[in-house]
């Protein structure tokens, strides 16, 4: 295992008929906001429509009054779902002279029909397991989430087991290949941003902004390529293949199906899914550290949240 702990964004298990894509984290210094909600309903004639809401963002960081501003949706259910989504928004309040203040903004919610899941090729057994996993996580609702936000604590540990730093972080991932991570600790802020093959880092201790080096960009890519989302969203299709390996013992009284993702450059990632419920269990792979030693990594998926 790596000697450093790293942020773990637990998959979100989604339920219900209206599927919310979290396209943004609201910062109230901006002007306009939008949120797109793909929806599957029984009526085949459903068309794309928009609900605009006037929302009061309180200085306490809570949502205040929510009112309908305008809409092109004829279905009251969609309007109600937009209002429910608005009441669950998380945001950083706007500040003036260091004080948090309340502001009112118009937020746009877009509803649109969506297609069936993309087909996962190569291996019928692997496809069966992956479809079960996608279904367990919310099906099309899960696949249509475009932004993932994680918060927590990050510690750096030496080879001798000594903690050298302990910082809070906010991590924002925008699929398929963007990530922004902000670390705070000891009065300092460090920011790391990646977009595809590029990236930059802001070092708060020196107040320096610089491009990421090849190793840093490679680590970012490794994180995406070994992630559960990269597998289930099919982002690997142009650079590898999946195959069913076996079914083996998991936790007490449970068995797991093993799916292997093999990349063209030789990277191999094994994913385990519960045979009974389809839920992801863990991912396992080997990477080379700075000392040119092979390190076995194991990412466990410990928590699923229904929303």
Would you kindly provide a written description of the structure presented here, covering whatever features stand out?
- By secondary structure, this protein is mainly beta.
- It has two domains: 26-112, 2-Layer Sandwich (Fusion Protein Consisting Of Minor Coat Protein, Glycine Rich Linker, Tola, And A His Tag, Chain: A, Domain 2), CATH 3.30.1150; 119-306, outer membrane lipoprotein receptor (LolB), chain A.
- The chain is 15% helix and 45% strand.
- It has helices at 76-87, 124-136, 140-143, 214-225, 228-232; strands spanning 12-13, 26-27, 33-38, 49-57, 63-71, 91-92, 94-96, 99-101, 103-112, 147-157, 163-174, 178-185, 188-195, 198-203, 208-211, 240-249, 255-263, 268-274, 280-288, 294-300, 305-306.
- Strands 10-11-12-13-14-15 form a six-stranded antiparallel beta sheet, with helices on one face. Strands 16-17-18-19-20 form a five-stranded antiparallel beta sheet, with helices on one face. It has a four-stranded mixed beta sheet with strand order 3-9-4-5, covered by helices on one side.
- Strand 7 and strand 8 form a beta hairpin.
Count of strand segments: 21
- Unreliable residue runs: 1-46, 114-118
**Rounded average pLDDT:** 79
CATH topology of the largest domain: outer membrane lipoprotein receptor (LolB), chain A
Radius of gyration: 21 Å
- CATH A-level architecture of the largest domain: Clam
Largest sheet: 6 strands, antiparallel
What would the principal axes of the Cα set say about the shape? globular
């Amino acid at each position: 295992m790596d000697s450093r702990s790293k942020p773990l964004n637990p998959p979100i298990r989604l339920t219900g008929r209206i599927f919310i894509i979290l396209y943004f984290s609201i910062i109230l210094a901006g002007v306009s906001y939008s949120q797109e909600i793909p929806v599957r309903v029984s009526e085949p004639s459903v068309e794309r429509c928009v609900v605009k809401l006037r929302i009061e963002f309180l200085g306490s960081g809570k949502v205040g009054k929510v009112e309908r501003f305008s809409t092109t949706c004829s279905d009251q259910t969609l309007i109600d779902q937009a209002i429910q989504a608005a009441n669950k928004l998380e945001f950083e309040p706007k500040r003036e002279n260091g004080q948090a203040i309340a502001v009112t903004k118009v937020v746009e919610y877009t509803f649109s029909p969506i297609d069936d899941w993309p087909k996962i090729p190569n291996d019928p057994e692997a496809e069966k397991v992956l479809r079960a996993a996608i279904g367990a996580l919310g099906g099309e609702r899960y696949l249509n989430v475009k932004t993932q936000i994680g918060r927590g604590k990050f510690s750096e540990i030496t080879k001798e087991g000594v903690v050298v730093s302990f910082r809070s972080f906010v991590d924002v991932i925008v699929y398929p290949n963007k990530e922004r991570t902000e670390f705070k600790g000891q009065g300092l802020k460090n920011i790391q941003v990646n977009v595809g093959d590029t990236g930059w880092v802001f070092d708060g201790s020196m107040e320096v902004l610089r491009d990421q080096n090849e190793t840093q960009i490679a680590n970012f890519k490794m994180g995406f390529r070994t992630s559960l989302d990269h597998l289930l969203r099919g982002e690997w299709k142009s650079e590898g293949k999946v195959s069913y390996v076996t079914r083996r013992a998991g936790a007490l009284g449970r068995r797991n199906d093993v799916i292997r993702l093999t990349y063209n450059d030789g990277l191999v990632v094994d994913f385990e899914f519960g045979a009974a419920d389809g839920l992801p269990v863990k991912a396992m792979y080997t990477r080379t550290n700075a000392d040119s030693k092979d390190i076995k990594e194991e990412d466990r998926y410990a928590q699923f949240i229904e929303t």
